[in-house]
Fold this sequence. Notes:
- By secondary structure, the protein is of the alpha/beta class.
- It is about 50% helix and about 15% strand.
- The strands form 2 sheets. Strands 1-2-3-4-7-8-9-11 form an 8-stranded parallel barrel, surrounded by 9 helices. A two-stranded antiparallel sheet has the order 5-6.
Amino acid sequence: xxxxxxxxxxxxxxxxxxxxxxxxxxxxxxxxxxxxxxxxxxxxxxxxxxxxxxxxxxxxxxxxxxxxxxxxxxxxxxxxxxxxxxxxxxxxxxxxxxxxxxxxxxxxxxxxxxxxxxxxxxxxxxxxxxxxxxxxxxxxxxxxxxxxxxxxxxxxxxxxxxxxxxxxxxxxxxxxxxxxxxxxxxxxxxxxxxxxxxxxxxxxxxxxxxxxxxxxxxxxxxxxxxxxxxxxxxxxxxxxxxxxxxxxxxxxxxxxxxxxxxxxxxxxxxxxxxxxxxxxxxxxxxxxxxxxxxxxxxxxxxxxxxxxxxxxxxxxxxxxxxxxxxxxxxxxxxxxxx
Length: 338
């Protein structure tokens, strides 16, 4: 059965309320973004959320290989695993806004691969070598902490294959296009099988922008900032661009070239001017609750997913509207699909 998770920004003072509302509304899990120049600390937020909830999964959406050492990341998420009594998930990607605000590009795929190898070893209680010294995270070993699942956010083919080999789950960030999602799942599972692993045992998911409202124009506005970010992700590497149609590639390249970092995920970014209505309709699921439920249901019929992480809104939108959209998505769209 597909799980439905939501994603939020861990602004200080908000994680407790955000987590309680997520659980009350019936979400299966909650991810907090890791972007230090935009938000508070994700692990502090997850610790607060672990004490404010009893059921939902909790994780990062997503951290990166640069801002924290692999040992620090493993120790932090293992702490959440203990405090939440086994509900933690570690989401990792190449990094975007967290690194751009430090003047850094996304981590190379090879760096992500090495980082994943180290983090997974630490989480299994194994010793990892750094600077000629080998050591495990001793308290994880002593407490026999249950292994935290590691999920990789993937857009391009190379990261998808790395995730297939090394992660417990891959969550594709390629928009709501059924063909791209199906191809990504096939690529990840083929990589797992080629490495001698159990392809069927690899969890697969997707990040989807979904905005539902009785007024479709409001739904579109709520989703627009997130769609701009998704387009930007697709423009980060040539391998990702190669998966797009010629028309979509032109739009993605234009968004990426004009992308306003200070308006990351914001509905007011000037780069959004390059998004056509057709592009938004393909990359997101936007409309009335009934329309969104129908489209999500068809997508899941064609690409069975273990988890869908739903992004329901954008920065810069009236919080009251965002709350209405979020409620409609989980209480009407997700409920109908379930």
